[in-house]
Amino acid sequence: MKEKRIKKEIKKAQKKGIYNPKLKLGIVGLILVIGTVIGVSYAYYTDKSNTVLTISGTVSKKIKVTVTSSGNGTVNSSSQTVDYGTQAAFTMSPNAGYQYKNISCDNNSNTSHSGNTLYITPKTSKDVTCTVEFEEIPYLRTKILAANQLKTAVPNLQYAEPSTTITNTGSGLYKTNDSSGDTYYFRGKIDNNYVKFANKIWRIVRINGDGSIRLILDGQDIALNDSASILGLVKYNEIGNDEKYAGYTYDNTTPCTNSNPCQSIEIATNNEESIGTTDHGGTNSTIKKKLEAWYYDNLKSYDNYIIYGTYCNDTSYNGDRMNGISFGSIQRLQKGVLKCPDPKGKDEKMQKYGGVYKLKIGLLDIVEAVLAGYPYGGDAAASTRYLFYSKIIWTMSPSYFDNHAFMQYLGNLGWIDDVLSVSDDVPAVPVINLRSDVTVIGDGTGAKNNPYIIN
């Protein structure tokens, strides 16, 4: 190709507005001319001499970049005009509950995103049209609600679910309320509430009113009859000769109320005697120390996923006994009331033991057990329900004080009872609350062999 042919080709490129050449002559050993036009390399040869013409320059073609959304979100500006190789930035606005999924473009471009900012760099002389796709954020709570049809019937809490005595309202997801709003709880025979978190298998108890997710360690994940198991056999308190020993903490400086709950101090050690109490001072119960030491060993590295959830240690006054008093949980469980009362005593004064807590880890409230399908009326056992243990299990709910403090517990025959001394040795099953915005990975359905896996 002669030199004038090269110049002719350059003029064509100039005319099209895609190339501004600068010419430089030089002598080298090869008869080769290289010019780059819109990312394509051309080689030119002369037939006369060893003179080489090297072409260099910059593209001046203006390229229109257009971005549209396939739905469930918008893009702030539909189009921008940029030079070849220059980056265009667009701001995406996903609808509530949605996030960026991917982008597809009709012509060659480099794309990337950071947060809700999308970057597109054209690598072609043609205009570029791209489509952004948004997807639903895989929140655990959203997955739960989408996978379960809400039951609207009011269950008979006196009987189990499933019951061997009557036809109750059926197993499934139910709705009631707690101190923060609407709460959705599983009841009865449930096979889609398994969660894998922190290398352990948990069961979903309910979506709390604040949107957080309440989990209990799966009964099959702990050898409940083994004193060397995860929590083993533990006392609620070492002694019980005072009603205050029904408290999760006691001798608090101020009462633990709904308006001013006792929040546990950060769990910074597994040394039980060095574990802090709460921001209200006081003395830890034996079981609080055991649970928080277990938390440090098993869950501390997942601390950011677990909130300070609301726990009820109902020590409100509910009548006299021969040598003491009854506590409020006995009345609450019959009505399925989750909201925890303030620890108001017989004399209307606030007690400085028990009450409302904000904790990283705790125990099940007896009302939650009844809602899950444990009967309070002595119905026959229903071992097919999801919340069932073949051993006696601690709850966080005091029953009464009559010369000694006693707790509500989950019985090994499938119903609840209220004559468990605080100084008895019984397994404790941890309960935690995951943040409302935790997401899942994979295609888990909540089944035992395909649990929801926390991202």
What does this structure look like?
With 455 residues, the protein is mainly beta. The protein has three domains: 3-58, no CATH class; 62-136, no CATH class; 142-434, no CATH class. The chain has helices at 3-15, 140-147, 286-298, 329-335, 366-372; strands spanning 20-27, 33-37, 40-44, 51-58, 62-69, 73-75, 79-83, 88-94, 98-105, 109-114, 117-122, 128-136, 150-151, 172-178, 181-187, 194-197, 200-207, 213-217, 233-234, 249-250, 262-263, 283-284, 309-313, 317-321, 324-327, 355-359, 393-402, 405-410, 416-421, 426-427, 431-434, 440-441, 452-454. α4 (329-335) runs parallel beside α5. The longest helix has 13 residues, at 3-15. The protein starts with a helix and ends with a strand. Mean pLDDT is 86; it is low at 17-59 and 223-229.
Principal-axes geometry comes out as: elongated
**Main beta sheet:** 9 strands, mixed
Number of DSSP E strands = 33
How helical, in percent, are the residues? 10-25%
How confident overall, as mean pLDDT? 86
Number of helices: 5
| CA-atom Rg in angstroms | 34 Å
Approximately how much beta-strand content do the residues carry? 35-45%
Structural class comes to mainly beta
Amino- and carboxy-terminal Cα gap: 62 Å
Into how many domains do the coordinates divide?
3
Uncertain segments: 17-59, 223-229
